[in-house]
Amino acid sequence: CAKALAASRLGYEPVAQSSSGEVVMREGRRHEAHIAEDLKAIGYELTDAGPCLQCKEEFGREISGHHVEYENVLLRLVGHVDRLLDIEGQKYPCEFKSMGLFVYQKFLKEGFESQKGYEAQELCYTSIVENPGLYVVKNRDNGQMSLYTVPYFGAIIPGHKVLPVHATFEEIIDKLNSVEISVRGKELPECETPENERRWCPFRYLCSEPEPKGQVEEVDKGELLEAASLWKEGKELEKQANDKIEYAKGVLLNQAKVTP
């Protein structure tokens, strides 16, 4: 969600993660290691980068995985691939996800349509590494795993079911560029997350409708006319300002595309 991305950059305080959320994160890391072990046992050649020393030195954070990044004139995008799969000297990004039974079954039916955030993440990995990806989802309730290949410009990892993608890396970068422009203008974009999914967002309080407080005071006719005139003038100025902003955004986005 563009609004959540901008909020994190603008210094808004995220909602504290619940104890159950911390458990899910911890268990996810454990299952990642188990998935890697299971894949190696059936012949997959995987490499684990371990802790990222570059991010430790630059950001002071403990992050594990193979460091990948993309940069243009507006932004720098940094990520970490769970593992790299080696096939005849070619390196393929691997992403592992563990899920409860209901989410797992939903993913088997709908794929990335049920997890748009996962799709964006994987598109970034395959595009930066410039190879198709190995995507593994595990049902943490019974250990069942499903293996997929995520295509890269039509190329796939043979012997795996294809997991279709419905967006492009360029669309993701365009969106992130727009978020960066909003951040530099100290603005929050509109929320893009459906209301029934906002409970997982650490900035969900920014999308809550405020409840009306107090009693409505009466306003005389003269004040209403003056307010209406000011409102009309303000809307005209707002339109002019928005036109200028949209023009400037277009110039910046085009510049970001031509000067990576």
What does this structure look like?
The strands form two sheets. A six-stranded mixed beta sheet has the order 1-4-5-6-7-8. Strands 2-3 form a two-stranded antiparallel sheet. Helix 1 (2-9) crosses helix 6 (169-184) and helix 6 (169-184) crosses helix 7. 22% of the residues are buried. It is elongated and about 80 Å long. It has seven helices and eight strands, in the order H-H-E-H-E-E-E-E-H-H-E-E-E-H-H. It is an alpha/beta fold.
Instruction: Spell out the helices and strands N to C.
Output: HHEHEEEEHHEEEHH
Low-confidence stretches: none
Question: Tally of extended strands?
Answer: 8
The biggest beta sheet is recorded as: 6 strands, mixed
Spatial sequence of strands, sheet with the most strands: 1-4-5-6-7-8
Structural class: alpha/beta
Number of helices: 7
Give the integer mean of the pLDDT values: 84
- Assign an overall shape: elongated
Euclidean distance between termini CA atoms: 24 Å
What is the helical fraction, as a range of percent?
A: 40-55%
How much of the sequence lies in strands comes to: 15-25%
> Radius of gyration in whole Å, from Cα?
23 Å
Key structural traits:
alpha/beta, 260 residues, two-stranded antiparallel ribbon
Provide a compact summary of the structure.
With 260 residues, this protein is α/β, with parallel strands linked by helices.
Write the layout of secondary structure elements.
Layout: H1 2-9, H2 19-41, E1 46-47, H3 53-59, E2 66-71, E3 76-81, E4 83-87, E5 90-99, H4 101-110, H5 116-129, E6 133-139, E7 145-150, E8 161-162, H6 169-184, H7 221-258
Parallel strand pairs: 5-6, 7-8
Antiparallel strand pairs: 1-4, 2-3, 4-5, 6-7
Helix pairs in contact: 1-6, 6-7
